[in-house]
Design brief:
The complex is a heterodimer of chains A (271) and B (416).
Chain A (H helix, E strand, L loop, with lengths): L11 H33 L3 H12 L8 H4 L18 H9 L10 E3 L2 E3 L4 E3 L3 E5 L5 E5 L1 H7 L4 E3 L6 E2 L4 E7 L2 E6 L4 E8 L4 E7 L12 H19 L2 E2 L9 H4 L2 H11 L4
Antiparallel strand pairs in A: 1-2, 3-4, 4-5, 5-11, 6-8, 7-10, 8-9, 10-11
Chain B lengths: L14 H28 L14 H12 L1 H12 L6 H25 L8 H4 L6 H25 L8 H12 L1 H24 L11 E2 L2 E2 H29 L6 H36 L16 H19 L1 H4 L2 H28 L15 H24 L6 H4 L5 E2 L2
Antiparallel strand pairs in B: 1-2
Helix pairs in contact in B: 1-14, 2-4, 2-13, 3-4, 3-8, 3-9, 4-6, 4-14, 6-7, 6-8, 8-9, 9-10, 9-13, 10-11, 10-13, 11-13
Classes of the chains: A alpha+beta (271), B mainly alpha (416).
Chain lengths: 271, 416
Amino acid sequence: MFPGIDGFEWTPGHLIFLGIFYTVVAVVFLTLALAAVRAWRSYRANRAEAIRWQADFHDLPARDRACRHALTGEMRERVCELGFDCRRCETHARLLEERPPAQAPAADTEAGGVRLPLDRLYHRGHTWVRPEKDGTVTVGLDELASRLMGTPDRVRLPKAGRRISVNGTGWRMWKHGSDVRVLSPVDGEVAATGGPEAGWYLKVKPAEGRLDARHLLRPDEAAPWMRRELERVQWTLGHSLADGGVMVQNLSEAVPAEAWDAVCAGVFLQV
Amino acid sequence: MDRALISRGVRRCSPRQFLLWLVPWAALAAFGAYSAGLCLVRGLNQTNMDNRFAFGLWIFLDLTVIALGAGAFFTGFLLYILKRHELKAVINSAVVIGFVCYSGAVVVLMVDVGQPLRAWFTFWHPNVHSMLTEVTFCITCYLTVLAIEYLPILLKNRKIRQVPSFLVFEFELHKVMYVLAGVGTFLSFFHQGSLGGLYGVLRGRPFAFREGFAIWPSTFFLFILSAAAAGPAFILLTTWLVSKISRKRLVKLEVMAELGRISGVLLIVYVLAKAVDTLVWINETAPATGFAAHQFYAWRPFGTWILFAEIVVFGLAPALVLLDEKKRQRTGWLVGAAVLVCSGIGLNRFVLTIQTLALPTLPFDAFLSYTPSWQEVGTFLAVIAYGVLVYSLSFRYLPLFPQERELAEVPRVSGD
């Protein structure tokens, strides 16, 4: 067949057939190599965390990606395409300009039995952020996530000095044999770590010295979002109460074992 | 026990139940491996094929599974090239089915050639004028493409994707998937066609011989069309079957209906083309070779009923069902039609493989009959078992149906 073999002669048939065949083989392997090179570059550039969230967010069901402005009723049926990073969203900026945030409620709000203290902002991954006087921010789990996790079996917090970024891994927890990756609500450097018994998990020095909170929910926005979240938990459990009901205190023990993973996946936006 | 490997948000049966499901299939695969081993060690005398009846159960199996596996390339083409995003709901399952079908077919071919250690000869000494050479090259390339397409699905396993390098590679691989989908479409187009062309160029077999366009007989185009029509129907059927066995909703009805519509449109085009081809064959091609077409159907059990069944029962009837929008909204109609389409593709490949070889072509020829040996049947069953095992493991540990999580959360309101 090939040159070097007795009796071989190139014919147009050989040229056409082998030309096409080897072009196809080259395209397949170059494509694979291209993906490998790009992956290597992304890995070296520490983009794994951002890619993880991008991939996870892309795979979330559409109703878990509802836009914050759809949850508050400002818009109808809008799905977020930017990984809940409203800092990059033109629509969010425009809406804020058109309708500045209403005055904060006079007292802590509440949704379906979940308290939403006024002194903090909320992230869609069920963490809260509280700005402190010293310029740092404190990060903790909101009441739904706290009741769901109860006392975690194990917690792995980042070391002080470690940089974390919005929607990257904030910390990890284990409960009932499942691991949960809690999304970081802020960009910055970890200054101190707490834990479930402290009521907070991280103290963070915000990146560039100030907290950019455009992607975080204000308490007045958090209430309709939390009602929706409670509804989602009930759907995952396979039933829902017509009046919404009130969430039980010890949710971690109330969730059936077979639904545990699904409930955690829904609440913490995991795939 | 294996919960950490199962995708979040979906529920699977207990490991014990899963193991009980796997055991009979594993036993069948082991029996088939023994059968194939006998053929490889002792030779093809273990089969009931001979020089006259050189294509049997295995080639029928190869042609059928390759046609049914066409859903992988066609769904990929529709999703990545034509941007039919609704098919994202079944693309992973389609790739696994394609991979299983093609790898199973290649394994059987390795047994069938009798000398698998010399398989590389075809790449070093190819006869570039042979349809089979083109089939060999394309299937090898396409199986490589399918393996690469299967890789990101594998890397999406919950445990594997915790490794950052794998996660990043999966992400980047996914971004170039449209290139692989394009290459897959090109390769599939040609090897599906060449498998049909292989029969169409058999001048010594007037039952199969067809005229055509340039170097391609009409069977080249009919095979492409029929495979493209059967692929989506097989995905529809397997999705329904897996949904029933696992007792879970996996995709929305509109996705099933869309698969049915695509299959229906392609099937009606195929039926029309096949009808025209048959008329040309009856009136021109067959008489030109010295036969009246009815003579081919004088040998029982291959009567004219088989032609009627192929075109009307398994072609026109399901095509009309799938083209009816109201019927597409009923799972029963959809699944029933898909069963007919998939059976039809099997019948078509059976007719071209077995009936072609069984019919006498010379005055002193006899009508041949062939019954596969148990070793052939064992190898055949092993491919089925292998497919079920790979698909079952993939379904349990990989995210094959992205809509499953959402569908598992459908609210059921209770007022009390």
